[in-house]
């Protein structure tokens, strides 16, 4: 994933939101950095039931990264926490609530979902399960992972 040429589709000011589990949080942080984003914040999806050992992993996270400046809704809007509760759907399906939060906080931004599984109105898409809007070629020179990190 580090070799995806995400920089080729980045606007002057943009955000990156990447889903991760507890076990891959560190890799997600390195991934957004390799794509040219600075870590901004972590959003957490709280589920009623979890998986794994003890304690059960009942959360997934969205790592938010920023490149440049992007206009948001403003600080005088009603405060919203960086966590939310949503029901689990099909295996690995992410809740619609997360997309709605992104649309609420960044209404002026164009949006694309990478690794998309379905088309969403108002969003561009790229992935092997949809008709993609862009060609996201890999870098000519592959980045070499070091210690499970990109670059």
Q: Rounded to an integer, what's the Rg over CA atoms?
A: 16 Å
Question: Approximately what portion of the residues adopt beta-strand conformation?
Answer: 25-35%
Output the CATH topology of the domain at 18-110: Rossmann fold
Main beta-sheet annotation: 4 strands, mixed
- How many DSSP helices? 2
Class computed from helices, strands and strand pairing: alpha/beta
Helical coverage, percent range: 10-25%
* Total beta strands: 6
What's the architecture of the domain at 18-110, going by CATH? Answer: 3-Layer(aba) Sandwich
Name the quaternary structure.
single chain
* Lateral strand order in the biggest sheet: 1-3-2-4
**What distance separates the N and C termini?**
11 Å
CATH class of the domain at 18-110: Alpha Beta
Q: How would you describe what is shown here?
A:
The protein has 151 residues and is α/β, with parallel strands linked by helices. The protein is built from two helices and six strands, in the order βαβββαββ. The chain has a domain at 18-110: Vaccinia Virus protein VP39 (Rossmann fold). The strands form two sheets. The chain has a four-stranded mixed beta sheet with strand order 1-3-2-4, covered by helices on one side. Strands 5-6 form a two-stranded parallel sheet. The longest helix has 10 residues, at 25-34. The chain is globular, with a radius of gyration of 16 Å. Mean pLDDT is 84; it is low at 140-147.
């Amino acid at each position: 994933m580090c070799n995806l040429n995400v920089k080729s589709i980045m606007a002057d000011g943009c955000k990156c939101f990447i889903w991760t589990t507890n076990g891959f949080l560190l890799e997600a942080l390195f991934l957004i950095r390799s794509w040219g984003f600075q870590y901004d914040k972590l959003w957490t999806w709280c589920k009623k039931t979890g998986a794994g050992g003890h304690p059960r992993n009942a959360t997934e996270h969205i790592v938010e990264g920023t490149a440049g400046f992007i206009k948001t809704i403003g600080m005088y809007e009603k405060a919203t926490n960086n966590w939310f509760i949503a029901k689990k759907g099909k295996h690995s399906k992410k809740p619609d609530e997360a997309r709605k939060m992104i649309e609420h906080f960044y209404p002026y931004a164009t949006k694309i979902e990478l690794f998309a599984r379905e088309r969403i109105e108002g969003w561009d898409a790229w992935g092997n399960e949809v008709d993609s809007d862009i060609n996201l070629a890999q870098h000519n020179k592959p980045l070499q992972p070091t210690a499970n990190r990109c670059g």
